[in-house]
């Protein structure tokens, strides 16, 4: 017996299809707006930083800002030489990188090449928990535990220094390097490993001479992103590095980074419209350029060394 569809049912089905077509037309527009939020946010941040930075440079010359070695924004004769803040930032970042890169890559090699599936499912989430710890906790950990421990070994080390926050920032970025590098190594086809082992390579030789080069783009990108994260760290250096900007290569005494200065001014009594007030935007814009360059380098490395399988 043939199924008969009434006119009312046909009209209802037609109306249902029409409403679905209307929804389908709006969905791409809604998704495009959602996808554009990050772009609009970045543009807004850039406009804010740029306009206030331009105001700062109408009061302080480019030559003083980029060539002067002294940063003394709160003195009677203020000096705005950002080189001291940049040097402090780079000292902390260097220590963090020296610590985090070998530890992170070692963890990634173990998880990718040696750990069983069960061990990997246990260790990797635990490792990534480090990335979820608030940075203020890391800062107090550096100030109240790492620094006193280092001073028992190195009595001349200052209460505020570059080594303690550098090591703790290194601990903080280890999960980023380990997780992203392990993902890149795991993406290398198993057939490549089996081919190397079949030719007589040991497991270590396969990991270092075959898998590691094949995943080099992802590994380098993870390191660059981790360094960018270390450059922009705020709370750890604010608590454990100090607030004395110095043009010096000494890692044992107090220093100040770009982010720490921004925190110091933002939580202080800087008058709206003063040179100190506008200086935080100039420092923030410089920091923005640093992180932008690091992200561009990461993208270039990814495209340059990408392996196609």
From TrEMBL:
The chain crosses the membrane at residues 26-50, 80-105, 126-150, 162-180, 210-231, 276-297. It is a multi-pass membrane protein. Signal peptide: none annotated. Keywords: Cell membrane, Ion transport, Membrane, Nickel, Nickel transport, Phosphate transport, Transmembrane, Transmembrane helix, Transport. Residues 86-298 form the ABC transmembrane type-1 domain. Pfam families: BPD_transp_1. Its main location: membrane. CDD domains: TM_PBP2. It is found in: Cell membrane; Membrane. InterPro entries: MetI-like, MetI-like_sf, Phosphate_PstC. NCBIfam families: phosphate_pstC (TIGR02138). Belongs to the binding-protein-dependent transport system permease family. CysTW subfamily. Part of the binding-protein-dependent transport system for phosphate; probably responsible for the translocation of the substrate across the membrane. This is Phosphate transport system permease protein. It comes from Macrococcus armenti. The gene is pstC.
